[in-house]
Amino acid sequence: xxxxxxxxxxxxxxxxxxxxxxxxxxxxxxxxxxxxxxxxxxxxxxxxxxxxxxxxxxxxxxxxxxxxxxxxxxxxxxxxxxxxxxxxxxxxxxxxxxxxxxxxxxxxxxxxxxxxxxxxxxxxxxxxxxxxxxxxxxxxxxxxxxxxxxxxxxxxxxxxxxxxxxxxxxxxxxxxxxxxxxxxxxxxxxxxxxxxxxxxxxxxxxxxxxxxxxxxxxxxxxxxxxxxxxxxxxxxxxxxxxxxxxxxxxxxxxxxxxxxxxxxxxxxxxxxxxxxxxxxxxxxxxxxxxxxxxxxxxxxxxxxxxxxxxxxxxxxxxxxxxxxxxxxxxxxxxxxxxxxxxxxxxxxxxxxxxxxxxxxxxxxxxxxxxxxxxxxxxxxxxxxxxxxxxxxxxxxxxxxxxxxxxxxxxxxxxxxxxxxxxxxxxxxxxxxxxxxxxxxxxxxx
Length: 445
Known about the structure:
Blueprint: E1 7-11, H1 15-27, E2 31-35, H2 38-44, E3 52-56, H3 64-71, E4 80-84, H4 89-98, E5 102-105, H5 110-121, H6 136-148, E6 155-158, H7 165-175, E7 183-187, H8 193-201, H9 218-221, E8 226-230, H10 237-249, E9 251-252, E10 261-262, E11 266-271, H11 275-280, H12 286-292, E12 295-298, H13 308-324, E13 330-331, H14 333-341, H15 347-361, E14 366-367, H16 369-372, H17 390-408, H18 413-420, H19 424-433
């Protein structure tokens, strides 16, 4: 099993042993976060996004069991593989019962050790091209959704308008391995309240004036696929009660119907509202809130993940340029800088709309700031734009591209250099010249 691009933690105070493990794992393409003190590992591990941890038993401050028990209190505990030079069968049994993944005695065969590490991590959850974004936050989101996809639990996706809640729901559906089944999306805010029940649950012939025949609602048409309810906070109280029945009893009634209809699909709901506050205000049922909030996923706003802005711009440019057969060559660095300085209240949806307008109406060979933001004759701070030198523009573009590569590789310089098609030494020199170093980036040697 390939270990390329995986992230592993190492807790080992022995300098020679630690360097040996780091060197061998690095040759396999693994990014290693190495701690020589147990307290440092306990403090930093929850934020390190590790897929496995290799931990020595005897450490200068804590022992390996202390580190493991502290890590076990976090919400996402990576598998622990313990190594020790002091054999203790009782200790090994105790650790395995506590949830440790494996136990190796020093010295050990490195090839066997690597095989076991690969087995513990399993296949990469999200492989191949970026789907939701290139920023660390969106890669974390992809990994979370890939895990959630294996469940059949109800999922609540929250986030600002236009941040990508439905795209994330469709990604979750695709990762579940049943993407051939229906994905029925319902915007609860877009359908008139008096029609929503009929559209969602269906109706029988003669249920109301104009109901000339039976109508199957979205819940029934979802079959064993996904029923996605966007803007769930817009449901009226009486429909909230019926949705609660659908979740609890896996059945519902069509409007005017007397026979329960089974619901065999998976429910995914989304909202840009604060449902917990709505519950306190009496505008949303508390029992329904807890039923839909089995697994909660938060989509970060676009301004929280600026690394995704250039990537999304390129994505939308390719889409619209192919559709419109435009003579445009691409996006200027000035347009990219303008996009990076904008707050994006409408998130990805607004970015997509602005790129569509820019590609359709741009007069030159490149998308310029005015094509994306025609309403801004001056910059967003209210000052006239200053024309930068060509060298400044080139350096800024190069700096952003390096930051994007480091973000995509989790800060691993060697992997970033391969992604950029340059040598590791060359990348270090460019980072030094552009002021990028370990103090302002989380880079890994």
